[in-house]
UniProtKB/TrEMBL annotation:
Keywords tagged on the record: Antibiotic, Antimicrobial, Bacteriolytic enzyme, Disulfide bond, Glycosidase, Hydrolase, Signal
Protein name per the record: lysozyme
Signal peptide bounds: 1-29
Gene Ontology terms for molecular function: lysozyme activity
Pfam family, one: Destabilase
Classification via InterPro entries: Invert_lysozyme, Lysozyme-like_dom_sf
Disulfide bond annotation, renumbered to this chain: C37-C115, C40-C147, C42-C50, C55-C64, C77-C97, C87-C93, C111-C129
Length: 151
């Protein structure tokens, strides 16, 4: 049986710390929207690859970051972070914006607390869960890798 040296033990602790830190850094903000649902919305907004793709022109205005957040959406979620584009490009800030937006609007709109309602409101605004124009967005979201069974 081998004896673990002090250096080996220190290295093991470092590996565990870094592993935990990476999980925390990659986590979405917590709230009413599940982690799986957040990941699926991000994938849908970024063509299957959940990443910050910067800003793109979408229906006459810019959409930015992990969730392709428009400036008015960012305003509705309370203007978190250092600014709209900066927040949208920061995983934690952007996901907190989504969580705050849903906490504010889902109940007021009379929508259920499901990923479908969150995704459709994300796409179509506070009443998006009720608009037929957002059904296609929801159907496309479920086609993203790992999202077929999201609830």
């Amino acid at each position: 049986m081998s004896v673990v040296t002090g250096l080996q033990l220190a290295m093991l602790r470092l590996v565990i710390f870094v592993s935990v830190a990476c999980v925390v850094v990659n986590a979405w903000a917590t709230g009413m929207v599940s982690q799986q649902c957040m990941e699926c919305i991000c994938k849908k907004e970024n063509k299957g690859n959940c990443r910050d793709q910067g800003c793109v022109m979408d229906k006459g205005s810019l959409s930015c970051g992990f969730f392709q957040i428009k400036e008015n959406y960012w305003i509705d979620c309370g203007r978190p972070g250092a600014g709209w584009k900066t927040c949208a490009s920061d995983r934690q800030c952007a996901s907190q914006c989504v969580q705050t937006y849903m906490a504010e609007w889902i109940g007021k709109a009379g929508c259920s607390r499901t990923c479908e309602s969150y995704a459709r409101a994300h796409n179509g605004g506070p009443q998006g869960c009720k608009r037929s124009s957002t059904i296609g967005y929801w159907n496309d979201l479920k086609k993203q890798p790992g999202c077929a069974s999201v609830k």
